[in-house]
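Before relying on records like the one below, remember that each one covers exactly one chain. Contacts with other chains, cofactors or solvent are not represented anywhere in the record.
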Amino acid sequence: MNTKKSVRPWWSPPSLVFRQTLSLLYLALLLGWRKMPVWVIKYGFSCLPGASGAKGMGCIGFPSHPVIELTDQCNFSCIHCHATGCSGSDEQNQLTTTEIFTLLDNLAEVPQFRMVAFTGGEPFLRNDLFSILNYAQKLGFSQTIATNGSLITKEIAQKLKDLGVAIVAISIDAPDEELHDRIRRTPGAFKGAKEAISHIRAAGIPVHINCTIAAYNAAYSRDLISLTDELKAAICIVYQLVPVGRGREIAELKLDTEKNQQLLQEISESQREVTTVIEPVAGPQYWANLLFKAGIRKGILLSIAEHLFFGCSAGRGFIYIKPNGDVLPCPFLPITCGNIRETPFKEIYENSPVLKALRSRDALKGACGACRYQSVCGGCRGRAYAVTGNYLDEDPACFLREQEP
């Protein structure tokens, strides 16, 4: 284990901060947003530690960061969970503390990786979590952690602050207790999430709220976004259901083309009214559609957008590591590119044929391969794979192909 080698701090070099700020301003320009100064000043800059190393905005948050799924064990049993059943890992097969330390050393060797995210399952079920966070802090990583919030106390929130955690993401899937608890299949889940948010904010850590939208809660998406604003979340990450893991059991409840367009329209309209920054996941058409509606279809403004918005980030800076060491391009694209117990991470990251194909938008097929907004969208690779079995096929829920050229 090499704790002497550390990553560069998230604010270095300044050009990355400039690029990230520019992407926020460009998005605000596309939205014609009256609250643009409030958005950028109040929350935009507080999000930058979570964008460490990223040069713009992509699907599933800022690109250029690895996510480590510490465990697929959980104290909840959410109906849409992508983690359960994806890797076949279990508590006995998950990476040991030493193996995760070694993985973090390897991640530190990738120059653009300055932030690392920890998730699950429920990461707080690992009794070595604080040791892992401490090790990542010593390496210089900016850290985020995604949790259902049920195990966060005031004391734990302060501990996270002391260990350099820059962002805590809490999951809320409905604006009311009854529906949220039903989705999470856990009584008291909604109340626990709100209490956790209170503890995290009191500790001085920015809060992200993760939401997953499917047919059962799509009608409440606006109210849900409004709730995240009331809770003073810095970012609301709005996922769409992609039928992987336990989500395969409710595949018929994923959003179709019309519902995808409707949700992304509601996000753009809501963003004009709330100061929480909203990021759509599994809906990379968001940025492309805003450009289309603004009449930006070629020229310098599109060229600038292509350097700020990257759409689907699967394997393109974003990488996902399962509890057993499997390396995936994305949690919603369950194709194993290698295992860190068998092959060094950097070798997998640089040489995997799957990752190489994802990094070349020229490899995309159908409408995605021919789209003028290919660089800023690229279609959802996870959804393409779930529906067609080919991760390079066109996104079956894309509505852009139906618009005028």
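The first strand starts at residue 57 and ends at 58.
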